[in-house]
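Two quick folds needed for the group meeting slides. Do the first one here.
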Amino acid sequence: MDTNHANRKIYFDHEKLRVYQESLKFVSWTHDLMQKINKKYSVVGQLDRASTSIPLNIAEGNGKFGGLDRCRFFDIARGSALESESCLDVLEVRHLVASTEIEPGKEMLHAIVSMLVGLIKSNSDRVYEESGKYE
């Protein structure tokens, strides 16, 4: 699946967002990963839905005019990214994929979540605590 959008004409503002572009790369990566796994496992369908939800909610949120409305969709996209990460963990603990196979996806998701948190903070008046180390 080609994710090189550098030469594509931009029609909508969300297409300019780096987080949107990275989420499409993740969708492409998950598509390739899922081709290697038997579709009978429900986690495969869940990963497909969760990964697809990320760019869809980024696009919808970016199209909203109100900051709180935008944040709601960016929050949903963030949740879908975290859900996608959990699906990768489930695939690993069920021995359907090796940890080395999911590492690139986890790296992509870490970047996507970080960018989404930045968008949420910039569109919200919420108070945030400094990120700490949870154990």
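Then this one, please, same format:
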Amino acid sequence: MSVTVRIPGVLRRLTAGHDEVEVTGATVEEALEAVGREHTGFLERVRTGPGQARPFLNLFVNGQDIRFIGGLGTPVYEGDEISIIPSVAGGR
């Protein structure tokens, strides 16, 4: 399945400046692994290990938070969009 992975600004240096990457995969994890195969260092910045997303990254499939619908094992389908959103903290 061809899906779009939207890359946040903080990770674009790892994807040659691309804000979106088209890859194939049947799950969120497979899609992220595909990005990692194309762009060295990317996978290490979004995962702590197989099946585990970094704690301060939020991942969404078509606007739905994967933490509530299957984690990295969430299925993806042709035309889906995976968004990687870094958590924001701090302030007053």
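Slide caption for protein two: The chain has a mean pLDDT of 94.
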